[in-house]
Amino acid sequence: VFCESDRVFSFGPVLAHGGNASGSSSMPASPSHAAMDLGNGVTEFLRLANPKAIPCEVHISVKGREGGSSDVPFEVEPTKLVIAPHDSQQIQVRFKPTQMGSFSAMLEVTVPTGSDP
Asked: pTM for the complete prediction?
């Protein structure tokens, strides 16, 4: 769930995973539906759009919030992409906690050649 006024996306309650099993959900989903793969966390698909008439190179990362841990149970794929003019592309954000707790992080999407509005 994304709260526009707070600019916060919440995965909600998720079961912690105790091992190092890796796996990914290949199930396509719309931006409003998460794919749950028990033991491997939750994957959410988010859409990034380019409303401009030129291609847009985008760098994507997940970082700990100010005052929080830099080791967060979130992953993002891909970490770089080029969005064609007037097009959009999906990214995957995976939340895979290994212990109980409350976690938060910042999804940072930057355009290296752009300016901050």
From this structure: 0.69
User: Could you read off the pLDDT of 20-58 as tens digits, one per residue?
Assistant: 444 433 333 334 445 555 557 788 899 999 999 999 999
Q: Are strands 34-36 and 42-50 parallel, antiparallel or unpaired?
A: antiparallel
Cα–Cα nearest to 14, from 33, 32, 45, 40: 40
- Tell me the C-alpha to C-alpha distance, in Å, between residue 104 and each of 39, 54, 62, 91: 20, 33, 10, 18
Residues 10-43: b if buried by 16+ CB within 10 A, e if exposed: ebeeeeebeeeeeeebeeeeeeeebbebeebbbb
